[in-house]
Amino acid sequence: MSEICQLSINVSSDIAEELMEHLWLIPELISGCTCVNAQGFGNRQHYRNVQEKIRGATERNLILLIVQHESVSLVLAHIQQKFKSSDCFYWVIPTLISGYMSQGALD
User: pTM of the full predicted structure?
Assistant: First the structure.
């Protein structure tokens, strides 16, 4: 059985849509995702306007994907080749189980 994981990508809200367009170019690796509005805090944040600077947080999007573990490096390589931005922070965590509730009860 192949292991699955969650690939999380934290990206500026200015470029989230463009990044997702690049992800749709590889449907053999990615079948869908969830995109969540988020706020970025920390010393690496680049404030885009006065409101963000006053609030102390930047507008971000968190793109969450469930992918095969062996596909993570391919997805990241695709992003690096096709999407020219240094404003993406990612991390990977194991996914023990996933599925739709309509698939039935778990044992």
Answer: 0.82
Spatial distance between the Cα atoms of 48 and 30, rounded to a whole number of angstroms: 30
CATH no., domain 4-97: 3.30.70.120
The 8 Å CB, 24+ separation contacts for 39-43 are 40/10
Q: How many other CB atoms sit within 10 Å of the CB of residue 65?
A: 22
Q: Which amino acid is at 16?
A: A
At CA 37, angle to CA 86 and CA 24, rounded to 5? 60
CB 59 within 8 A of CB 52: yes
Residue 30's CB is within 10 A of a number of other CB atoms, namely: 19
Domain spans, the chain: 4-97
Tens of pLDDT, residue by residue over 5-45, are: 999 999 988 889 999 999 999 999 999 999 999 988 776 66
